[in-house]
C-alpha cells in the first residue's frame, strides 16, 4: 500500500511538472527561446501568496495571478520583444540575466530567510481514497493537471488563435506570410505561460515545500527543462509528456530511494544523482529525445 501511495504522489508531482513544461514549451514554440527565468515567475507568485496569506484566499490567489502576469508582460515587452531579432544565444543569455535579476531583487527585498506560503491549509489535510491516505493537494494537482492540459488541447486545436500558435511553432516566418499576426500570437503564448506559472505557484508550495526563498522554483525549472529535452522540446505534447515523466520519476525515486542517514547522505543526494544519471543514460541511447521521430537529430529539432 505504501508503494501505491508513493506512485499516486509521483503522479501528482508529474502533473505539476507537466504544467511547468507546457509553460516553457509555449514560449519556445513561438520564440524558439528557452526561458530560464520561468522559475522566478513561480517564485514571485509564491512570495505574493506568502505576503497576502492573511487575506481572503480567493483575493490572495487573484493578487498572485496579477503579479505573475504583470511580470510576464513586462518581460515580454521590455526584453523579449526588443531582442526578437537577436541571435538565440543573446536571447538565452538575456533570460539568465532576468532570472538572476529577479533573484537579486528578492534577496534585497525579502532577505535570504524563507517565507511560508500556504494559501489553502486545507490542501494539506489527508483524505482516504480506496484505502489510501493521501493529501488533498495530491488529488487537486492531478485533477488540475488533467483539466488544464485538456483545456489547452482544446484551445490549440479548436480556436483560431490556437491554430495560429501551432502554425507559428512549425514555421513562424511562413505563418507571418500567411497573415498570422506575430505580436498577437507571441503575446498570447507568453501570457498563457504566465497563467500556468501562477497556477503552479499556488499548487507547488502545498505539493512540495511551503518555504519560499529567492531561488524557489529554480531547481524545478532545471529538472523540467531536462524532461522537456528528453521528450522533445520542439513539440508541445512531447515536451509536456517529458515534463510529466521527469516529475513522476522524481516523485517515485524520492519515495523508493533510502531516506535514512545523516547529512549529507540523505535521500536528496541519492535523488539528484539517480535522476541525472537516468537522463544521461537516455541521452546516450536516444540523443534526439525519447518521443522525437527517428532520424532527426537534436540540432535539427531545435
Rg, rounded, reads 19 Å
Structural category: mainly alpha
Strand content: under 5%
Number of structurally distinct domains: 1
H/E order of the elements?
A: HHHHEEEHHHHEHHHH
Estimate the mean pLDDT confidence. Answer: 81
- Overall geometry comes to globular
Helix content: over 70%
Q: How would a textbook summarize the main sheet? A: 2 strands, antiparallel
Low-confidence stretches: 262-266, 297-302
How many alpha or pi helices? 12
The termini sit apart by 43 Å
- Strand order within the widest sheet? 1-4
How many β-strand runs? 4
Features:
single chain; mainly alpha; two-stranded antiparallel sheet; 71% helix; globular
Describe the structure.
The protein has 302 residues and is mostly helical. The protein has one domain. Helices cover 71% and strands 4% of the residues. It contains twelve helices and four strands, in the order ααααβββααααβαααα. The strands form two sheets. Strands 1-4 form a two-stranded antiparallel ribbon. It has a two-stranded antiparallel sheet with strand order 2-3. Strand 2 and strand 3 form a beta hairpin. Helix 1 packs across helix 6. The C terminus is likely disordered.
How would the blueprint of this fold be written?
Layout: H1 2-31, H2 38-51, H3 57-80, H4 88-110, E1 115-116, E2 126-129, E3 132-135, H5 136-158, H6 160-170, H7 172-177, H8 182-207, E4 211-212, H9 218-231, H10 236-256, H11 267-285, H12 298-301
Antiparallel strand pairs: 1-4, 2-3
